[in-house]
Amino acid sequence: MRAYDVVVIGSGVGGGSVALQLAGCNTKVLILERGPALPREAQNWDPVEVFCERRYHTKETWFADGRAFNPGMFYFVGGNTKFYGAAMFRFREKDFEALQHPEGVSPAWPITYQELEPWYSKAEQLFGVRGQAGQDPSEPPRSSAYAHGPIPHEPVIDAIAAKLRAQGLRPFPMPCAVDFGPQGTCQRCSNCDAFPCKINAKGDAEMKLIEPARRSSNIELMTNALVEKFETDDTGRTVVAAVVNVNGVRQRITASTFVLSAGAINSAALLLRSANARNPRGLANSSDVVGRHYMTHNTSALMAVHPFKINKTQFPKTLAVHDYYFGEGEGDTPLGSLQLLGKIKEPMLRGSLGAVPKFIRSALATHSVDWYAQSEDLPHPDSRITIRPDGAINLHWHRSNMQTHHRWVARCKSILRGTGYPIVLTAPFGTDVVSHQCGTIRFGNDPAVSALDPLCKAWDHDNLFVMDSSFFPSSAAVNPALTVAAQGLRVGNHIREEIIR
Ligand SMILES: Cc1cc2nc3c(=O)[nH]c(=O)nc-3n(C[C@H](O)[C@H](O)[C@H](O)COP(=O)(O)OP(=O)(O)OC[C@H]3O[C@@H](n4cnc5c(N)ncnc54)[C@H](O)[C@@H]3O)c2cc1C
Fold this sequence. Notes:
Layout: E1 2-9, H1 13-22, E2 29-32, H2 47-52, E3 62-64, E4 67-69, E5 99-101, E6 104-106, H3 113-127, H4 155-166, E7 172-173, H5 205-214, E8 219-222, E9 225-232, E10 239-246, E11 249-260, H6 264-273, E12 298-305, E13 319-321, E14 337-340, H7 358-367, E15 368-375, E16 384-387, E17 393-396, H8 402-417, E18 423-428, E19 464-466, H9 481-499
Parallel strand pairs: 1-2, 1-11, 2-8, 3-17, 11-19
Antiparallel strand pairs: 3-4, 5-6, 7-13, 9-10, 10-11, 12-15, 12-18, 13-14, 14-15, 16-17
Helix pairs in contact: 1-5, 1-9, 3-9
Flavin-adenine dinucleotide binds at residues 9-15, 32-35, 72, 75, 79-81, 83-87, 194, 226-227, 261-263, 266, 270, 435-436, 468-469, 479-482, 484.
């Protein structure tokens, strides 16, 4: 048995932001991370190893309505950001308000954009986000400029930007947490999005949060430490211990405050697995919302192909289009975000185009400019994580708002054809892609319909916070990591100022 003041479970963006806020305090903090530190090795940048061999994926099996699958989850120090695409967007002001979509309402958040704005600024600085304010037509107001200018386009992307402007659109530099520029470490390799960075030029949670936090002597990190469940006292209100499996050996770790940051799916699973006599539906779950309202965005990949043009771009993620984020005009409903993807390579197509001869896959990959169309999925109570009798995770993704997504993809195809690429191939991402998972332990103002208060403390427990993407009541249509970081810094600040002082 070991005792700490604060135990943080998970070393991703959520856990890392809280830990960084507690660094240097007169308090003993332990971060428990189920994975190891990711090795820096040649395979980091090998698409066959990363995509085909799935070298870094968890070996776990989850189920989607009974069908077994290997989820795209990465259990390392830094969590999923070790593999993320580093697109660091703020949610829009209106994303915090109730928004009508054709298939339902995207619910309001219990906090406003203005409450999170200072924390967005801080998160951008910590992650070294590069961007340019005032260019994104849907951009919310900001109190500070980006600390670093945007990553410049390569020639193919520059030409596309001009073609987009000729269509009357306002393409803008994608905000990106990659250390490119004067004195920057990025080499503009072509293995960034969905690869770990061998030279640590990507602003991920390990490099930007966990490592800086660990420079303080009060922060300890334990790796290969899988938290299996929580124990409460006899009242059921206070969490007293985390039961941790460290390399096969079980330990009880006690603390005054627990911060659960295992990611939206694993955090919900852990609370459900911790059910006891006083909390029969699982911890933090008197409202019965834990595990429900799972969202992960409606997303499609688009390959814009020109049969006679080779795309030699190394780092394409420099541009996005948000002219239709809130729809095509007055009275319309929101459509979504169009962003450049990391460069698709032949091995990445082996899964989806396995039946197609390799030379065709290679030709497609060398001639394509690759895009990502993203639109909002809506929270639904039956979109749900549950635990099977054998202990495994079952995922039921109740797909929603697909009418909007189909409309957005069709619009994107016509935009991309207008840039001079006559062939646009599209493929929707399916259930197995859980990268933008969120919503499973929602925060709110009403304990009857939310699990967490607006500062992410469990309504049902005195000393349990949940701080990862599970708190989102809606998913918006931009990437989640910066919003997790901003709320993590806000919650960490609250714990430092109000809870442990
Ligand atoms: C390929 C890919 C590309 C992406 N690209 C982008 C992008 O460009 N922009 C963007 O904003 N977002 C992107 N995302 C999403 C982004 O990475 C996530 O939103 C973000 O990392 C979520 O952070 P988190 O702290 O909620 O959870 P996680 O990153 O999942 O962190 C949870 C941590 O908890 C650990 N853990 C889990 N269970 C336990 C347990 N029981 N005990 C102990 N430890 C545990 C995990 O190992 C992990 O380290 C991408 C994701 C992927 C996979």
